[in-house]
Amino acid sequence: MNGPSRKSLLVNVVCLGALGWIYGGDLSDALRARTAEVSALLTPPSAVRASLVLGFAGVGLAVFVAGLLRKKPEGFKGYRLLPILLVVALFLDLVVAEGRTPLDSPELGAVALQRFQGEAQKLATEAAVPSRAQVLQPLVDALGAPPYLERGVPVPAYTLQVRMECEGPVRDAPGTRPGTLLYCIARDGKQAWVTLVGLPSEVRFGVPAVLSQRGEPRVAAVHARIPEENDVIEGIDLEIPTVDGGAATSDSP
Q: How confident is the model at residue 99 (pLDDT cuts 50, 70, 90)?
């Protein structure tokens, strides 16, 4: 039988499609991240690595087609280039990705919101929530770097914007940089809403917007501390026995 078997032909087609989808997507993301105002990526994909893999894939395809046209037998090594390339490329990707967090940008942003909320709640009193930027800034500094890129460059650190006289969380913040925590304090000072500027969960590239899911912003709330009350049980009288002549007596029947 001349030419590759149907199995070899199918395997090569699947491998070529996988290489194009994975590394073509990486190359597209790498190029798009350089121009987008905000990218929901922790680090930009390597355009060089993606280009090299796609280049080798082109060579493997050319060798495969040449063998196909010349009706090389099943044992022709050119029929194995694309499967080998896919396996090697994926293995190298796993090595490079080792130690990276499995969470994506929206999830990491939500975690940062919860961490800030938890620490700010510890500073709340019975009278009010913390309101001074100088007090809240150390909590922001402890969060590390936001999970976003700005024009292809990682955003170096979270920033804080304190707003007063609010009636609810900030839902729109045009002109605000990604990684900004919007700390919005209610008029009575006893509650604050925290939102994060990044991108909606469903969007990977775009302009800065409040982190949201299905159109609803991700909000963390800080409340004034509830006064502690001592547990008192009313309506129970304890009868204390009296001592008369060394013996304990009681008026109870």
A: low
